[in-house]
Design brief:
By secondary structure, this protein is α/β, with parallel strands linked by helices. The chain is built from 11 helices and 12 strands.
Length: 373
């Protein structure tokens, strides 16, 4: 039996979450919200991905405060208005697809906030352009040419921690099955971890113990109010000498597990323009393997995993428990269907699609029957 199409259960205090396969849709920003509210684009996008045949769909980075958005078009979950918009849109999308568990990535962009959308250049926005003052662990800009962010006070950090908690409670009310805290790609929690972005001289900067303190406090506070599946996305390395690295990620993962973490989603980079990434197919998988072996956490591998046999080989080698796909599934929204055809697996599909299959993939929907007079 294909490993990619074997079931897997993510643990949680609530009793865990059963996944039909090992295919996870990674969070992918759409920059298409209106004042933080999910909109028609999200209805179409989520409906498509919920019809993909994957085992778990992760909603894009969702800001826990308005100033924590990457761009003015980023999704939010910080008040009743954004909660209602997200909930109503997700409810409609779920009605248009077979049942699939949903995860949400909760995030704060930190010093990378107030950016233009990528198709508008992605650079820091001024107040005149609709931007706002970014916040960070230290007054160090993302790019040398930019003004520095405002350094967070401890009181502001408490407010952000509490915003993560409130967003998690909102997600739980909406029937979302799992939460992923975003501590990767150079956003706020990653900024605290990395000595390249965090040069504080208080209890939250300097040593490893101090730099991991705030991300761990955020995780512990969310764990206290959310008993569903809870994990964290991390950048395993900054790809910069003297930055955050794999050994530190391994130790962070062990501490997360002790706090009740259910999974770790392993990515890399994003905190520094000086990064030198050794990019190639499955280039982040070795990080996932070491973290999985050292921590014992359920581990998601991600990054240039585009071929079903490639995904299968990663699982067969014990390098990860789950395969997260992102850009590949934007390009091929039925990627799990193709993978099932290639590996002899099955997926769940809406009955409206049952008669679409070519002969060579005729069994991927299982024992379904259609008739017509």
């Amino acid at each position: 039996m294909s490993q990619l199409f074997s079931p897997f259960k993510l643990s949680s205090p609530r009793g865990g979450l059963a996944l039909a396969s090992r295919i996870v849709i990674a969070p992918m920003c759409q920059y298409s919200a209106v004042n933080g509210e999910a909109a028609d684009w999200h209805l179409a996008h989520w409906t498509s991905l919920l019809n993909s045949g994957a085992a778990l769909f992760t909603i894009e980075a969702t800001a826990v405060t308005a100033e924590g958005r990457i761009t003015p078009g980023c999704l939010g979950l910080w008040d009743e208005r954004t909660e209602q918009a997200l909930g109503d849109t997700l409810k409609r999308a779920r009605k248009l697809a077979p049942p699939m568990p949903v995860c949400i990535q909760l995030a704060h962009a930190g010093r990378k906030a107030s950016s233009a959308a990528p198709w508008h250049g992605g650079q820091l926005l001024s107040a005149e352009q609709g931007g706002w003052p970014p916040l960070g662990p230290s007054a160090l800009p993302q790019l040398p040419s930019e003004p520095p962010p405002n350094e967070l006070t401890v009181a502001q950090m408490v407010q952000i921690r509490d915003a993560f908690v409130l967003a998690a409670q909102r997600a739980d009310r909406l029937g979302i099955d799992a939460i992923e805290l975003h501590a990767a790609h150079g956003y706020l929690l990653h900024q605290f971890l990395s000595p390249l972005a965090n040069q504080r001289n208080d209890n939250y900067g300097g040593s490893f113990d101090n730099r991991v303190r705030f991300p761990l406090e955020v995780f512990a506070a969310v764990r206290q109010v959310f008993d569903g599946v809870l994990g964290m996305r991390v950048s395993a390395t900054d790809w910069v000498d003297g930055g955050w690295d794999l050994d530190q990620t391994v130790e962070l993962s062990r501490r997360l597990k002790a706090l009740g973490c259910d999974f770790i989603h392993v990515s890399s980079g994003g905190v520094s323009p000086q990064q030198k990434i050794a990019i190639g197919p499955a280039y982040q998988v070795p990080f996932a393997r070491q973290i999985r072996q050292a921590s014992g956490l359920a581990t998601m591998a991600v990054g240039l995993i585009t071929d079903p046999q490639q995904a299968e080989a990663i699982l067969q080698a014990g390098d990860a428990d789950l395969i997260a796909v992102a850009r590949a599934i934007l390009y091929k929204p039925r990627w799990p269907w193709e993978a099932a055809a290639a590996l002899g697996g099955t997926v769940t599909a809406s009955p409206q699609y049952w008669r679409c299959l070519p002969r060579e993939a005729s069994t991927i929907f299982g024992d379904v029957r259609i008739g017509q007079r």
